[in-house]
């Protein structure tokens, strides 16, 4: 039992459980009466919320999509901020971030299915790598406006964040860039179907 009372272990469990909360699914069900796991791309992320809800209620779709991004991002920030307030080590903070992203992508509440991890990863990076993340977010927004392809814009924004962190020599405080690479890898991995469709020219644009 003492194992589960360990400071770090408690935060790791909470981070994974918080990350597992499928806000997109819940918001779409509660406010639009639709199950996004059964429609569109079947993802629980903001893009699928927008696509599915837009078919019946365009104005509500935008609001729910934005709310999904914010809530999914907060899953990656709130637990980290609480841990920071309690003087957790930098390595603990990064572990919390990785587990929050894993929770979103492989939710315990959805039989280990989930979203793509972009917003949750953004929330983690925003706290732990603020300047590179702001650069990546700007790239994400510009690409989304110009390209109108959600997956490509997200991946370009993520890539810009990682490159900016390396270029600015923004140390992670743990003598390794591994946690940042691991989060990026999880997000890239979850986007493999999108990458395949992009290569084939079959990826849908946001209208």
From TrEMBL:
SMART domains: G3P_acyltransf. GO terms for biological process: phospholipid biosynthetic process. InterPro entries: G3P_acylTferase_PlsY. It is a multi-pass membrane protein. The keyword Lipid metabolism applies. The keyword Lipid biosynthesis applies. Pathway: Lipid metabolism; phospholipid metabolism. Keywords: Acyltransferase, Cell membrane, Lipid biosynthesis, Lipid metabolism, Membrane, Phospholipid biosynthesis, Phospholipid metabolism, Transferase, Transmembrane, Transmembrane helix. It catalyses: an acyl phosphate + sn-glycerol 3-phosphate = a 1-acyl-sn-glycero-3-phosphate + phosphate. GO terms for cellular component: plasma membrane. Coiled coil: none annotated. PANTHER family: GLYCEROL-3-PHOSPHATE ACYLTRANSFERASE-RELATED, INNER MEMBRANE PROTEIN YGIH. Catalyzes the transfer of an acyl group from acyl-phosphate (acyl-PO(4)) to glycerol-3-phosphate (G3P) to form lysophosphatidic acid (LPA). This enzyme utilizes acyl-phosphate as fatty acyl donor, but not acyl-CoA or acyl-ACP. This is Glycerol-3-phosphate acyltransferase. It comes from Halarcobacter mediterraneus.
């Amino acid at each position: 039992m003492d194992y589960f009372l360990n400071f770090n272990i408690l935060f790791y469990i909470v981070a994974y459980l918080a990350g597992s909360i499928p806000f997109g699914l819940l918001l779409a069900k509660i406010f639009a009466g639709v199950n996004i796991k059964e429609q569109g791309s079947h993802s629980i992320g903001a893009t699928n919320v927008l696509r599915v809800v837009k078919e019946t209620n365009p104005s509500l779709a935008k609001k729910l999509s934005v709310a999904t991004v914010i809530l999914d991002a907060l899953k990656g920030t709130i637990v980290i901020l609480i841990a920071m307030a309690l003087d957790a080590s930098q390595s603990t903070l990064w572990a919390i971030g990785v587990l929050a992203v894993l929770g979103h992508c492989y939710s315990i509440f959805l039989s280990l299915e989930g979203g793509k991890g972009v917003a949750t990863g953004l929330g983690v990076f925003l706290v732990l790598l603020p300047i590179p993340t702001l650069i990546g977010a700007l790239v994400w927004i510009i690409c989304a406006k110009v390209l109108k392809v959600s997956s490509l814009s997200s991946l370009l924004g993520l890539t810009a964040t990682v490159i900016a962190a390396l270029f600015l020599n923004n140390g992670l405080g743990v003598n390794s860039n591994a946690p940042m690479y691991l989060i990026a890898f999880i997000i890239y991995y979850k986007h493999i179907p999108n990458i395949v469709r992009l290569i084939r020219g079959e990826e849908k644009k946001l209208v």
